[in-house]
Write a structure and sequence with these properties.
elongated, single chain, transmembrane transporter activity, Membrane fusion protein, cobalt-zinc-cadmium efflux system, 387 residues, disordered N terminus, 25 strands, signal, 42% strand
Length: 387
């Protein structure tokens, strides 16, 4: 916990009033009472108002305990595509830029290669041979059935015809993979250019090529990401994974907006441990899918494994002094000001705004406590000193 100091107006009062005095008027006489309590602090009404102080009581607050981890924003494998060509070629056109949205089936770029022509020529030649080979096979079958020709001639004609059919079908499938229409080839329309189409809808994440560059079949041309189904991909160490359960709340932050806490839910937990890093992957579903997260964005997260309601005070209501913790309890309120007594307390859980006060005997249940304007963090005061 951060060390806290009393605001300047309170420090002055505390230094001046080590033992407090008050006066009582009875039967037209003034009686002076001296207090020997060094823990009393007097604050004037003006100081109270100027420092925007506030008196309150212990209240129930929610405290969480969890596993601190990190990870990144990701999408499922089905929403990520690395586009390559079935055959290498020179890039003819490449009009897309990173960030462009493309629809499934949209033309991305075109490739050019003389080898494409040879495949189409072979397909066309095979197509033309089929009619002859089919008629020859049928003729030999008839002659063989009538015992006019030998079985050898018949089997040879059958083998040639069926193997040519297999070659023809294989070439046709290859043309389809190259995005060339076989019907056009049968009509003699042969091209040296093939188009490359988008396999999914999404945004262009990377363009790895440029016009005129030769790209092998193994090289990625364009990367596409459909970010409509973003999720959290977290890394949890082996020692913590047993406390992680599906459905648990995830609170996370991004470096770009570290002051805001986003929420997600544990959806899937990996069933094997990475042997190198001794970690497990945890997949989380985002609460708000409309947030403009970028795929690959780093996140710091906390998976909530324990939640409890506890009596608490705001962080600024508690002073740390020599590893002990104190609060200011209202002792007296007059028209002239306020008198508080500094009392030691025991603390428990903490969150971003509150700290648990352990009050086993309920001695603080109905006490009025200075909850705002009492103490401020040392790092908020230039040259601040602990009280």
């Amino acid at each position: 916990m951060k060390k806290y100091i009393l605001k300047s107006v309170c420090i002055v009062s505390a230094m001046l009033i080590i033992s407090c005095t008050s006066t009582k008027k009875s039967d037209e006489t003034i009686e002076t009472v001296t207090h020997d309590n060094d823990n009393l602090v007097e604050i004037t009404v003006e100081q109270f108002q100027n420092s925007k102080m506030k008196i309150g009581k212990l209240s129930m607050e929610t405290f969480n305990k969890g596993v601190v981890t990190n990870g990144h924003i990701d999408v499922p494998p089905a929403n990520r595509a690395q586009v390559s060509a079935i055959m290498g070629g020179y890039v003819k056109t490449s009009p897309l830029l990173v960030g462009n949205w493309v629809e499934k089936g949209q033309r991305l770029l075109t490739l050019e290669n003389p080898d494409y022509i040879e495949i189409q020529q072979k397909y066309l030649e095979t197509f033309e041979q089929l009619n002859y080979l089919k008629s020859e096979y049928e003729r030999q079958k008839t002659l063989f059935d009538e015992k006019i020709t030998s079985q050898k001639n018949y089997l040879k004609a059958e083998s040639t015809y069926k193997s040519t059919i297999a070659l023809f079908n294989g070439l046709e499938q290859k043309l389809l993979l190259m995005n060339i229409n076989p019907s056009n080839v049968k009509e003699g329309k042969i091209t040296s250019i093939i188009p490359i189409y988008a396999p999914i809808s999404g945004s262009v994440a990377e363009v790895y090529t440029s016009v005129g560059k030769f790209m092998d079949a193994s090289e990625v041309l364009i990367s596409i990401i459909d970010s409509k189904h973003k999720h959290l991909e977290l890394i949890v160490f082996e020692k913590d994974v047993m406390s992680i359960k599906e459905g648990q709340l995830i609170e996370f932050q991004t470096p770009e907006n570290s002051e805001r806490i986003y929420k997600a839910e544990v959806h899937l937990i990996g069933t094997s441990i990475d042997q190198e890093n001794r970690t497990v992957r945890v997949h989380g579903h985002l609460e708000d899918k409309k947030e403009p997260f970028l795929v690959g964005m780093y996140v710091e997260a906390k998976i909530i494994t324990y939640t409890a309601e506890k009596l608490a005070l705001p962080l600024e209501a508690v002073l740390e002094e020599d590893d002990k913790y104190y609060i200011l309890i209202l002792n007296e309120h007059t028209n002239h000001g306020y008198t508080f007594e500094k009392e030691m307390v025991h603390i428990g859980l903490k969150n971003e705004t509150s700290i648990e006060i352990i009050d086993i005997n309920n001695t603080l249940k109905d006490k009025q406590i200075l909850v705002e304007g009492a103490f401020i963090p040392l790092d908020e005061e230039a040259g601040g000193h602990s009280h």
